[in-house]
Design a protein that fits this description.
This protein is of the alpha/beta class. Helix content is 39%, strand content 15%. The structure holds flavin mononucleotide (FMN).
Length: 367
Amino acid sequence: MTELASKSSGGDLPLSPAGSVGSLIDLSQLEAEAGSRLDPAIAAYVRSGAGDSADANARAWERLRLQPFVLHDVTRVSTATSVLNRFTSSPILVAPTAMHRLVCPEGERATARAAAAAGTVYVVSMAATRSIEDIASATPDGLHWMQAYVRRDRGVTRASLERAAAAGCQAIVVTVDSPGIPDFQARPGRTLNDGLPLPNLAPSDPHPDVLEIAADYATDLSFDELSEIRSWTGLPLVVKGILRGSDAARCVEAGADAIAVSNHGGRQIPGCLPTAVALPEVVQAVNGRADVYVDGGIRSGSDVLKALSLGATAVMVGRPIVWGLAIDGEAGARAVLEELRRQLQRTMALCGVVDARAVPRDLVRQL
Ligand SMILES: Cc1cc2nc3c(=O)[nH]c(=O)nc-3n(C[C@H](O)[C@H](O)[C@H](O)COP(=O)(O)O)c2cc1C
């Protein structure tokens, strides 16, 4: 996969038919290729979903169809955008996923370098296996946001987030879809992060096992607490795990700077609403007062364009990045990001769209 990684540009690219067609890779093949290289238990952890909710996310993007505009000048097509007022080369962000050293020795350092090379944001999971200071020093110019689950003892979470702010993170992402419930059931007697550190927790953390930590997530977090959490660092706050317009509106009113429409990659609730279906009502409720991101089953540039047409500011991608890391470390994760951006640019051109910040709302139709 190394040869697929190409030099990143700022996102404003002349459309090159040779480059855009010749390099297309099928991201749906990544899972099989990565899975064959990983310990089956680790592959199962990454792949896992609740019932068919992970598949339903992907199917919901498929059911949306693009209705192109023709006879537009698409000589230059820009995938560049901004999230939380920061420029990125594309609206494709790296979602927080735990424990990258399970799949690649460099772990989150590799992910950070891949995201920086692609000119986009890396949301670092609280359960990363490299410290936030290590990640920040590997990519001093990188865009890093720190994700956290709020713990029962708020002081533990506050200390982690203050540390992230001191390390130079530009935003905080609080995940609210997992009250006391981990997103994976390990086989009895096994710990997932066996032998791997979780250095973004306090050294004195009473729960070094990632599944025990999940059992320690707060079960009483409220909208009212969001403004206090934001005040701990003063950094912009993204609330991740929203599927209802009314919840999104309450988060914005409580001070959220961005809403991430997410069902945790379909890993939590069996029978969960796909994020593509939830997105329009969240966009409508937020009504331009905050950025809106969406993740879950985004596997192609077409999916990204559909999300933008439904009003998302940007998308986040989870499993494909982990599969890319498993196949070829930093180069693999970067190839996934670059490929998604190339696909987005090509699909924009074919749909008569030249600016990722101004995608027409009537570009998508439901089958
Ligand atoms: C292996 C794995 C670990 C994850 N760990 C976290 C995490 O630590 N924090 C979090 O907020 N979300 C976590 N997620 C959810 C992702 O942030 C994201 O919502 C989801 O992966 C998006 O769906 P996709 O994988 O279909 O792209 C994880 C997802 C996976 C697959």
